[in-house]
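Example complex used in Figure S2.
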Amino acid sequence: MLTGVVFDIKEFAVHNGPGVRVIVFLKGCSLHCSWCHNPEGLSPQPQVMHSAAGERVAGQVFTSTELAARINSQAGLLRAAEGGVTFSGGEPLAQAGFLAEVIDQLPGLHVLLDTSGHVAERDFRLVAARSDLVYFDLKLIDTTQHRFHTGDGNEGILHNLHVLSAMKVPFVIRVPLIPGVTDSESNLSAIAHTVAGMPGLQRVDLLSYNRAAGAKYAAVGLTFRPTYDELWPLNVNTDCFDFAGVEVRVV
Amino acid sequence: MMTENMAGMTGPAKKAGQIAAGGECRSSATTANHFKLEPRLEDMKRNLREGYFKRFRDSEEVDVLTECEAERISWPRRMARLTRRMCEAQRVVICPEDLIVFTRTVAKVPPIYSEAEYRVLTAGHRLHELGPISNICADWGLVLTQGLSGRREVALKTRAANRNNPAAVEFLDCALETIDAVLALARRYADEARRLGRFDVAQTLDRVPAEPPRTFREALQALRLCHAVLWLCGHYHCGLGRFDQYMWPYLKGNLEAGRLTEAGTEQLLAEFFLSLNRDSDLYSGVQQGDNGQSLMVGGVKRDGSCAINLLTNMVLRVARGVGMIDPKINLRITKDTDLKLLELAAQLTEIGLGFPQYSNDDVVIPGLMAHGYTAEDSRDYSVAACWEFLIPGRGMEVVNIGALSMSAAVDTAIRTGLASGDSFEGILDRVGADMRRQVDRLIESYSGLLLPPAPYYSVLMDGCLERGHDLSEGLKYNNYGIHGAGSSNAADALAAVKKFVFDLKSLSPDQLITALDTNYEHDEPLRRTLFEEGPKTGNNDDHADAFMVRLFDLFADACEKVRDNGRGGIVRPGSGSAMYYIWLATGHDGMIEPVIGASADGRKRGESFSSSLAPSQGVRVRGPLSVLQSYAKPDYRRICNGGPLTMELTDTVFRNPEAIHQVALLIRLFAFVGCQQLQINTLNVETLKDAKLHPERHRNLVVRVWGWSGYFCELDEVYQDQIIARHVYGD
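Predicted assembly (982 residues):
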């Protein structure tokens, strides 16, 4: 049986899928987006967080059975409330084998995968095939820009997006609006152009910038170094999506 | 989101163009089609918040005492005289914008006995709180369908049949005097309205409250006047009962006849709600806002069929648009309640007034039946001032004779049990014994309960005029209720002792007792271990929850031992804390329960307990689903005095377009898992902190305190801080 590292489990996470959900944050991510607001999700290992409130360990090791049991203890409620479980991170697919094992022990529960798509195709398919809905993060279409702001290019991500589309699993594109970075007309237009007409696409969510992004960096011994000006006004013009016939909403 | 911010809410975010980074993005789902006060009522609301109506108040006190003493009349007659003189002393106030009239001008309720005489009169007796009958609910349906003239006929008929029973004759004469006093007051209002050319007001008061209303407006006017007079006679915490049931016939008739549009109806309803805030600063309570103007909607009819109607929905919509602390809305639901109705309720929850408070019919009705209420009456339940279940018009119940301090029972048992070398079961036996002692002491202290006569309230109840008995002599239901305060902290203390002293044996009894006696001053590591590593109620962890269940079982055992409370009723245990979550920590004048010092759950002296049902303050909690699962565990058929699960949601939840639906689902889950009662505060901790620093910027900020909602800046600091320290979910 595989084990995995989880850095948080939240109940009633309203921003992470339909109905009443439990969201499981898996630790470890291969991207380093400068706006990341869960820096404790970057390292794959459990780590100590230091803050004014004291110390706590972020990262608890679960066997797949333990994690499934924890989720299943609330499955009746989640089903009754039109919800389910959301796996997020970090990058949940960094622990794809573990995650697949967990999902196989959650019969009849709605599973939402919240991923950056920045993983090997095999890992992507393994979990996406077991998911009822995928939230697929799409940040920047220009790969140079992507590499500058997140630490790597987006070729693999775009590839997995097309894999997802071909798998016919319903999905939502999630675009974090970062002032002066992802919210430009050209980037939003390119995203609209890329996703328009994909069969499983439900809609595009534009996520308003979270100004508390830097709050937890010191606690994990990192420095928050945004590659943009946080105070810059955000562009939330959705015309390009309307024009491309893509349902969009700002959340 | 907070009520005060509603005006600043932006529209649908789509197409919003440029907005500031991190700025407010509001969903279209939550902004659409809300009820809005018409300008006339916006002005009225502003006037209310600015205290405009206080200018009509007379400073001088009405003298009723002199004539009472000169005539040497009986207590019931003095109460009737008080009602009459107070009605007579009321000056007529008809503001140009008022469609529903009545503004209180007599501020103070004067004495009817000298202090010395009152002492003699009440010697050897126990009074409940301030004395006058309070915290019950009239049978407003009966009052409206019969009209006060109809009630008068009933009184006359009973009087004729009891001509040879002087006590009945005296009571009925007193009741008649109060009816005539209210009718005379209505006539004076009508006359003045005619003089002012306000023929609409005059016509309404020519009809009501004497005769049964023909229109929704007449029904609201009758209710406003009859309800306000209760407060004039010194009664308080006067409930409004099942408003959507007794008002519905009048609204339905109007809508069918085409006399009113739904929009017009909603404005009238809003004016009625506003009117309940006009004099409420004169109403007594522990804190400003604690005034018991509770209003129930939803649920089932007496025959068990669905009671939800258009007015149920309208009340939720209008209360949202009114956005004031009164009336306090309650909604009865089940696990099968239509989500559309729950979404309307969630929209009211969204604005942060702390209501509706939700009650689960699937749990409450069987609980009441198990406590001797008939099936029909059980289905007809409403709540008293806060959460205590009662049957409007059919009970002379005292739902809050006091609080059982679970924390005291547990703290005493732990200290004495450990000092005596008890087993853990031995400690639990001590807890049970202490609870029995506390319940017996409370019942004993109420054995000489003296309820003053209440001729006017009797008019409004079902059975007093009919039988010729004053309400104070009792009614169909005469039960007592006792709050159960501090349950989560007490359960956590037991769980910690079980784990560390008995199971792990990592803590010696002496070490714990010393740490408790010294408030952990020399053993902070131990406190942190108990606080952070002890099992905690609210995490769906049986290691802690089982103790909470056990505590409520012991409490129920203690109450069930009391066969008769001295008034022909039983004793209902409850899960509410009332203000004891503060008082048990800080002490309070007149409180018989001991102040709890440091406790074995890692709580230090002076720190507040959690309010009613909620995890102990500051402990780690998995989240609201685990909280629901934990608090579904007590056997509520035995714990039936009410007391809500108290939950805080961050206002950022409502930024999500689906939040209203999701919150509605969460509310339905509360019923699904089998909890009894729920209240949700929507708040933002940063706003609350700012309000403490800059109260002038947050005058209209509302929070749910315990069983009622109040203006945050009008609360004592200790209550403000306890709210700031609560668990907030949904981030």
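Residues 155-167 of chain A form the longest helix (13 residues). The two ends of chain A are 38 Å apart (CA to CA).
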